[in-house]
Amino acid sequence: MKRKKLLKKLSDLLTIGTEADKDEVGKLRDVLKALKVKQADLQEELESVQGDHERRKISKQIEVIRRQREKGIEVYKSIKEARQQ
Amino acid sequence: MLRRIILPAILLVLVYGFAVSKSFNEIAAGVALFMFGMLCMEQGFKVFSGGTLQRVLAASTDKLWKSMSFGVVSTTLMQSSSLVSVITISFLSAEMIGLAQGIGIIFGANLGTTTGAWVVAGFGLKVNISAYAMPIMVFGVIFLMQNSSRVKGIGWILVGVGFLFLGIHYMKEGFSAYAEQIDLTAYAMTGVAGLLVFTLVGILATVVMQSSHATLVITITALATGQVTYENALALAIGANVGTTITAILGAISAGISGKRLAGAHLMFNLVTGVVALVMIKPLLIAVEQISSVVGIASDDYTLKLAVFHTLFNLLGVLLMVPMIQPMVKWLEKHLRSESVERDVPRYLSKASLELPEVASRAVFKETVHLFNNAFNLVCHGLDLRRRDVIGDMDLHDLLDEPAQSIEIDLEDQYVRMIKDIYSANIEFISRAQAAAPPEYADSYSALRRANTDIVASIKATKHLRNNLQHYARSPDLVVRREYNRFRIRVASVLRSLADLNHADDAVVRLLSLDQIKVEAMDAADHATARVDQLIRDGKIASQMATSLINDGMYTRDLIEHLLVVADAITRATLPPGETLSEDMALQIEDIANIARSMDGAALTHEREFE
């Protein structure tokens, strides 16, 4: 009986961890999606905008988002790896 | 002054009462235990008021019937309409609900408070209530000794219920003993004079005890032992209903204008209900008799009849006043206005919200945004910029060549009028709220404190920058004028980007968007430095002007940094506790510097490599 209780507690704890991961992955996906949309919008704006100053500004904004997405994908990978282990 | 006299007088009366009467001892102890029970229950319910509170509120107050039901249920559970009205004032002050919803809750609370009379008259006096009190308190204390704050909350509620029961028991015992010694009914009064005098006694007793519930319980127990006549008990109940508004009025003193309006509505409702009950006492009593005979209440069971009367006149009040809610809202908004703003004052902070972590954190967040909004105007005007130009579509580069249009502003004076009181109140509120809040609120309060201090720092930087800007942004020398106008454009550009940030929904995305503004700001700062060097080398500016430009460039950089910290901290305060995604994905300062410095002209090809 005691062992059963312990196993149940352990499984509860593990479920809590997985739930937290699921939340984080879901949130991460949402943020990555939002950033992708922003990047696409900026890319479109860049195609149409005239003037060096504006183009340079938009290019930098795109670069910021690109790097942030890269970091986000790294986080995503590390969560997946941790889950597999 | 009055308080200095009243308190010692009450203490003296109590001491005298204790000395001469054992029954008085028991009644007073009963009242004290009863009120202590209510305090314990308050303590318990506060534990459950965090976290999902706002969602529950939003879902349960969007329609009038819902906000009234919320008032009925919460008052029935907490057994204190005063507590519900004070909490409602804090919700309203923090703009979590509107005035009409707040009035709905108050109406519901008045109905909810009638359940107390039923519990005491129907249950408390019929059974040996103290037999339940002891085990409930034992369970309560065991729960209190646990670590979980929720279990502790349940413990406080159980201990509270235990003390309430014990208090009712002592009052009952005290009045029974009194009945054997003296006949208080000798002081009974009949007719209109009796109604008015006992209504006044009911009001005074409720004001002193700050609880209509306590007055009602004393009235019911005294009625059960025949120490008050039925007629006088009815008047006491009406008085208790009017007197209970005093807690809401006291709660509203420290609240904003919306809290004052709600207290006004509460007073209007209870006064009208009280007057209607007094005027219609005869038809109401006939209705009570009929209802009692229908539901099977014995003709001599005056305590239950009192409960019927209490419910009936509150219900009548609600029916009469519900159609009046919208006119009442209009009237209150017209007649209770914020004082004309000589000095802007906090709008969302109230002492009542201090003990509710979710409400307190929401209130200080809104107050910080309010402060930032004021600072936004001050920074704009300090740099001779109009707010509408900064947040509008105007091409900011149009400002480059033209002499700046002067905006008359005394920053020192405006700081005192628009910033100082709110800033001081915020810092004090954060210190108090942080001490009372659970640990998961620590990050949010730290962020808000940082936002407040950086708002003030941004105004100080504006003041430094304004000194030279006033002269040089209107200088006949185009080179100098352009450089100072560039400072204005840099700040305006950051302010515009920050204003645009509000349109993004998600806090993490908003925080990440700050990286783009940081890159742009750093890029502009680097260009400014390079330009000053170039101007010196080309001999276009004197060395004295060069040092002025370098110093003012530093003030500009400081100002922008403070503004960015404010935006970062305000956004961070809205993140859910334990959220780390924004930290994981945000760029480091080196990355920001790299992007700002390495992409001149090459950005396009660089970007395409990654597609």
Overall description:
The complex is a heterodimer of chains A (85) and B (611). Chain A has 85 residues and is an all-alpha fold. Chain A is built from two helices and no strands. Mean pLDDT of chain A is 79; it is low at 13-17. Chain A is elongated and about 50 Å long. In chain A, α1 (2-48) runs antiparallel to α2. The longest helix of chain A is centred in the first third of the chain and has 47 residues, at 2-48. Chain B folds into two domains: 25-333, no CATH class; 356-599. By secondary structure, chain B is mainly alpha-helical. In chain B, α2 (22-47) runs antiparallel to α9, α9 (149-181) runs parallel beside α11 and α18 (357-382) runs antiparallel to α20. Residues 601-611 of chain B have low confidence and may be disordered. The longest helix of chain B has 33 residues, at 149-181. The N and C termini of chain B lie far apart (77 Å).
Fraction in beta strands of chain A:
under 5%
Q: Quick one: how many beta strands of chain B?
A: 0
- pLDDT average of chain B, as an integer? 83
Say what oligomer this is: heterodimer
Structural class of chain B: mainly alpha
Helix content of chain B: over 70%
Radius of gyration of chain A: 21 Å
Q: What is the terminal-to-terminal distance of chain A? A: 30 Å
The general outline of chain B is elongated
